[in-house]
Design brief:
179 residues; alpha/beta; Immunoglobulin-like; four-stranded mixed β-sheet; 8 strands; 18% helix
Length: 179
């Protein structure tokens, strides 16, 4: 029989973390995965809300999207120029004294921003609901020559108690007025 050499040390395995630390680490990873899934689901829901504007509500559109929902404009003349949302990337040419009408779909909540060009005067009712065309309508009279902007913000109309995006889209309708 041979005796182990006196210089040999016994082999001791490295210390293991307590079992509770291993479980905590696994729960932490599992909780992180659940958190990521929750955030991903919320992000997808927000994108769906942005991509799918409301198509029907229990309240008529006239009371939702336009600042003056119960106002029915009775302007006696047609506008000289009509601006639509698709015109947001163009400059509209007008003359002093002409009327600009901005027609925006009532399926959204619209607001005329406060930094409206000083070259125009707003006609009342501003933001009136046109039931026949389902539009929110603003009219402006061009008072001076120059370059100006008619800025609006658009929000989704949200049904109470339903998930809805708070996305705001800004429109700036540029115009060039000459005499």
């Amino acid at each position: 029989m041979s005796n182990p050499s006196p210089s040999a040390e016994p082999i001791i395995p490295p210390p293991q973390p307590p079992r509770s630390a291993t479980i905590t680490r696994r729960i932490g990873l599992f909780g992180g995965a659940i958190g990521a899934i929750v955030l991903l689901t919320a992000g997808i829901a927000a994108l769906v809300a942005r991509a799918n504007p409301p198509t029907s509500t229990s309240t008529p559109l006239s009371s939702l999207g336009c600042p003056l929902p119960d106002s029915h404009p009775a302007w006696s003349t047609s506008p000289d120029v009509t601006i639509l949302p698709a015109d947001g990337n163009t400059i509209t040419n007008v003359h002093v004294g002409q009327t600009i009408e901005v027609d925006l779909p009532a399926a959204y909540r619209w607001r005329l921003m406060t930094n409206v060009s000083s070259l125009v005067q707003i006609q009342n009712p501003a933001g009136a609901f046109d039931a026949a065309r389902q539009l929110c309508v603003w009219r402006f009279t061009v008072g001076q020559a120059g370059d100006g902007v008619l800025p609006f913000e658009r929000r989704l109309i949200c049904e109470p108690g339903k998930l809805c995006s708070d996305l705001i889209i800004y429109y700036q309708f540029a115009f060039h007025a000459t005499t």
